[in-house]
Amino acid sequence: MAAPISIRLEGSVLWIGFNRLERYNAYNLAMRDALYEAFGLAAEHPDVGAVIVYGEGDHYSVGADLTEFGTAPSQQVARRVRFARDVWGRVLDCPRPIIAALHGYCLGSGLELALLCDQRIAADDAVLGLPEINLGMIPAAGGTQSAPRVAGLGHASALLLTGERISAGEAMRHRLVEEVVPRAQLRLRAGEIAEHCARLAPDAALATRDALRRGLDLPLAAGLALERRLARRVWE
């Protein structure tokens, strides 16, 4: 049986690929454990300067594998299972810039993980959605919090409360992705961005990401104070 993810280091870019082709890269326990280790490697390996998350095969990811998470006795149990090894926390805490390269189906928890990344590049065939509400569920991987922070409350509400799927072009208009490219150019473009990020001064890149992520929920004065503290840390 193939490993649930593929992982390779090309220069200073770590490529992490969903690799459950028979399930359209649905997120399951084995993939959770593998991703947890992979993002730990991304954070600790001295040669890693940036990370790309992508999907092998025809799709990025259709989200959680409901044959595992969806058959838990309750949503509370399902969440405990999913967060026993907190992949999402590792993505947020990763000191390296992370780029998500999206193509085909980008749904549910797969999209939620992408929304925690620093940049999202989509192929022109990408279809994005958070369909949990149509299954009588609420996103369990941060979608209600990450989507409005990325796209704004209005766009996020439409996505979350309808469960509808949108095209790559619509996703760009809704600010869910920063760029749309032809499918054949997706990995090349993601690689270009990641290689650029990997060449940045690591202390400055980490401080900038820290200021963006931590400052978003602060009042402006507190956010500016955070920026000053981080700037001094880089200069010293």
What does this structure look like?
- It is built from ten helices and nine strands.
- Helices cover 45% and strands 17% of the residues.
- A hairpin with a 2-residue loop joins strand 1 and strand 2.
- It folds into two domains: 193 residues, 2-enoyl-CoA Hydratase, Chain A, domain 1 (Alpha-Beta Complex), CATH 3.90.226; 35 residues.
- The mean pLDDT is 88.
- By secondary structure, the chain is α/β, with parallel strands linked by helices.
- Helix 1 runs parallel beside helix 3 and helix 5 crosses helix 6.
- Strands 1-2-3-4-6-9 form a six-stranded mixed beta sheet, sandwiched between helices. A three-stranded mixed beta sheet has the order 5-7-8.
Characteristics:
single chain, 236 residues, alpha/beta, 2-enoyl-CoA Hydratase, Chain A, domain 1, six-stranded mixed beta sheet, three-stranded mixed beta sheet, 10 helices
Ordered list of secondary-structure elements with their pairings:
Layout lengths: L4 E6 L2 E6 L10 H16 L5 E6 L19 H8 L4 H7 L4 E5 L2 E3 H8 L3 E5 L3 E3 L13 H9 L1 H10 L2 E3 H6 L5 E3 L4 H13 L3 H14 L4 H16 L1
Parallel strand pairs: 2-3, 3-4, 4-6, 5-7, 6-9
Antiparallel strand pairs: 1-2, 7-8
Helix pairs in contact: 1-3, 4-5, 5-6, 9-10
Task: Please work out how many helical segments DSSP would assign.
Answer: 10
Spatial strand order of the main sheet: 1-2-3-4-6-9
Which architecture name of the largest domain does CATH use?
Answer: Alpha-Beta Complex
Question: Approximately how much beta-strand content do the residues carry?
Answer: 15-25%
CATH topology-level name of the largest domain = 2-enoyl-CoA Hydratase, Chain A, domain 1
**Could you state the order of secondary-structure elements as H and E?**
EEHEHHEEHEEHHEHEHHH
Mean pLDDT: 88
**What is the CATH class designation of the largest domain?**
Alpha Beta
| Quaternary structure of the protein | single chain
The unreliable regions are none
| Outline type | globular
